[in-house]
Amino acid sequence: MSETQGAFAPFRHRIFRSVWIATLASSFGGMIQGVAAAWLMVALAASAQMVTLVQASIALPIVILSLVAGALADAFDRRLLMLAAQVLMLVVSTVLAVFAWLDLVTPWLLLLFTFLIGCGAAINAPAWQASVGAMVPRRDVPSAVAMNSMGFNLARSLGPAIGGVIVAVASAATAFAINAISYIGLVVVLARWRPEPEPRLLPREPLGRAIAGGVRYVWMSPNISYTLVRGFVTGAGASAVSALMPLIARDNIGGGPAVYGLLLGAFGVGAVGGAFWSHRLRIAFNNEFIVRCALLGSALGIAVTAFSTWMALTMLAMVLCGAGWVLVVSILNATVQMSAPRWVVARALSLYQMATFAGMAGGAWLWGYVTEGSTLAAALLAAAAVQVGCAVLGRWFPLPETEEMDLDLAEFREPDLAVPVTGRTGPVIVSIEYRIAEVDAAAFLSAMTDRRRVRRRNGARGWSLMRDLGDPELWVERYRNPTWTEYLRHNQRFTRDDAAIGQRIRALHQGPEGPRVRRLIERQPGFAPHAAAPDSGEWVAPVIDQSRLS
To answer: Same domain for 379 and 458?
Structure first.
């Protein structure tokens, strides 16, 4: 397969192609709406702080709602979530168009409408990004992510220019109406799509527990948590370009909405080029090298913009900024997707988005504050320095190479029990006994360090490792789950890469039989053997001794 075919391989899959085209149309509408909102705010309020708050009002809902949206996307039908989000944005955009047509929009009302549209985007994004893995095979996921970025930035390259012309020739109300119409195609495609339902062997987690599980998984996965740090810093630095663009067009270039649209269009052209070349770059270089170069290129573009008063030079700088931005965000996004198994991928992506947009929202406010307190050039130069700092961060928070990861779920068979239990029976205590020769103790402890991280990441509580003082070759691993359902959920979350850690440990175990596993139910003394456990409301099962590895 040629490099170009590899880059466009996701389009061989009909559903990805249909959703991509419909999303492209919606993205055009969003870009037109964004130009209209930003320029309308310039007309309504001269304050630089209010102008930058337009960008912040779009990013803030993603910070607030992304984690909840990610948990919902992992628990419920992602198609229905996307459909609900699109309908919400359609309704809000329609109401905004009517208010603008009647000349009823005030600065704070405009921020409210853009905030609500941002809420729809926040609900939609984790479900849409997590659905990519259901639309294309794993080998095409990085290219699919890059194509999504290319589609969004293709709209960014032309949409702002079109939006600027619409605002200049017609009105902001017309631009808002066009955005409302743009959602209809995606609503139709999503309503007709019938994806295969993912098998669900256990009941859904409560929302709060699902959110906590997603945070725990990301926190204990260096591949993902490092990516979140880079996303936050990148978002903070890059937000200066979009947040201050209306002021760049007005103050540096001396233009109006058409100039603003052309500058955003130049940014989009660079982003499309970055997305198109991302596949070839990933073949030739590792992720960390590409991201560092892209960040330095983006910093150069922002620095040039700070001093340029020449339209052509500023547009070239915007091309550089756009290419750097899309290369960074597409690689970070793909890294998260390729580092998380399907059961938690939407929550991992939502946390990545929350980190990135937290940086963008905070950065948008910061650069507006710096501009008001100093100058536009000072704010842009500070943002360029942040981009350089993010490149330097790669020394301590490097991006992983994910192609060799095997995140398919390992096979797990529910153990046979001597006494029936229900899902709420618990707490369940598991102890696993290993016999390890003294010469293998160091290797065993190293493997158990990885085992501890995986156990806790997948939901185990109170993990510990003990050594028998009377028998130095005997080691006991111990952990607990609050209920039998959570015990099963914990074991069904192990990937094949996680299972490889268990194979390393079993290879060090001495003896003809495997490690001895005991599964026990905690109970309070003073109750009859078949009395109800006071903390679980279930029948208490006796001690169960199984010799199969958990």
So the answer is: no
Q: What is the pTM of this model?
A: 0.76
For residue 156, what pLDDT is reported?
63
- Give the model confidence (pLDDT) of 376-385 as tens digits: 999 999 999 9
Q: Both ends of the chain: CA-CA distance in Å?
A: 42
What is the domain range of residue 26? 3-393
Separation of alpha carbons 282 and 331, rounded Å:
9
What is the chain's percent helix, strand, coil content, to nearest 5?
70, 5, 25
8 Å CB contact between 324 and 417 = no
Q: Could you tell me the pLDDT band of residue 308, with boundaries at 50, 70 and 90?
A: very high
* Tokens found for residue 233: 């810093």
Tens of pLDDT, residue by residue over 313-334, are 999 999 999 999 989 988 998 8
CA–CA distance from 42 to each of 19, 172, 334 (Å)? 34, 12, 36
Domain termination site, one of 340, 370, 393: 393
Whether 128 and 209 map to the same domain: the answer is: yes
Written as six digits, the tokens of 20 are 């991509």
The torsion region of residue 66 among left (phi > 0), alpha (psi -120 to 50) and beta comes to alpha
Q: How far apart are CA 221 and CA 87, in angstroms?
A: 35
